[in-house]
Amino acid sequence: MSPAASVVTIELEQPGHGPQIDALAEAAFGPGRFAKTAYRLRRGTVPIPDLCFVALADGRLIGSVRLSPITIGGTPALLLGPLVVDPDYKNRGHGLALLKASITAARQAGHRLIILVGDAPYYARAGFRPIPRGQVRLPGPVDPDRLLALELVEGALAGATGMARPAPAEASTPLSIPCGGERGEEQNQSGESGQQRQRPDTAQNGRLGRLQPDPVAAVK
Ligand SMILES: CC(C)(COP(=O)(O)OP(=O)(O)OC[C@H]1O[C@@H](n2cnc3c(N)ncnc32)[C@H](O)[C@@H]1OP(=O)(O)O)[C@@H](O)C(=O)NCCC(=O)NCCS
């Protein structure tokens, strides 16, 4: 079905989605992504299952966003990424809908701060702002203009200063279900394969619901 005619839903990532997400990331970022500083930071941890979402177009995976636990100078925070949407489906609001789903879930779960490395003009649409230069260090080079934060609790950024490090999954997530690994290597460790994971507060079938005609406007 053509992108224009597809019904797109935003749903929780399932353990079997890993290879499709990796294929999207490979197409968008290429093999060089593993050398990127954000990837290096994520490599030391596991995404939080309840905060990872996919966009499905008539059941086919066309987008993904993940949140991983980190600390910044010892203060807990989340690292967002990768965010990726199939080019055939771009500019239809799916990227921002994925962002909005993960941000809402993180806020509901009691997290206080999200950071990411990305294009400021895009992420500003979801409320991300540049982090003051020098406040947060990453384990590799990063353009300071692309180091962004979103406070889920007012004032949370002020309490996060220093080196960002991966946080151990078992210490920072209430669930031990990994999202499919970026290379698929973390898959099927949950014992949940074949089952749909559902947040208790999402609608039936784990769906957040069909996208509204203008989901971009909802997060601008
Ligand atoms: C960036 C990406 C996630 C956007 O997904 P999407 O579903 O096309 O985005 P949306 O439909 O929600 O938003 C589209 C709008 O954002 C703008 N936009 C897209 N990418 C942008 C960027 N890098 N910088 C600034 N604006 C951007 C579009 O021009 C469009 O603007 P409009 O609403 O004024 O027409 C997608 O293009 C993608 O996967 N790119 C490759 C991977 C990537 O760069 N990921 C982000 C890491 S920084």
Automatic annotation (TrEMBL):
GO terms of molecular function: acyltransferase activity, transferring groups other than amino-acyl groups
SUPFAM superfamilies reported for this sequence: Acyl-CoA N-acyltransferases (Nat)
Positions of the UniProt region annotated as Disordered: 164-220
Upper lineage: Bacteria, Pseudomonadati, Pseudomonadota, Alphaproteobacteria, Hyphomicrobiales
Entry keyword Transferase: yes
Record key words, sorted: Acyltransferase, Transferase
Top-rank taxon, per record: Bacteria
Signal sequence extent: none
Matches recorded under PROSITE patterns: GNAT (PS51186)
Occurrences of domain N-acetyltransferase (ranges): 8-153
Pfam families per record: Acetyltransf_7 (PF13508)
Name assigned to this protein: Putative N-acetyltransferase YhbS
Gene3D superfamilies on file: 3.40.630.30
Compositionally skewed regions (Low complexity) per UniProt: 187-197
Family annotation (InterPro entries): Acyl_CoA_acyltransferase (IPR016181), Bact_Acetyltransf (IPR050832), GNAT_dom (IPR000182)
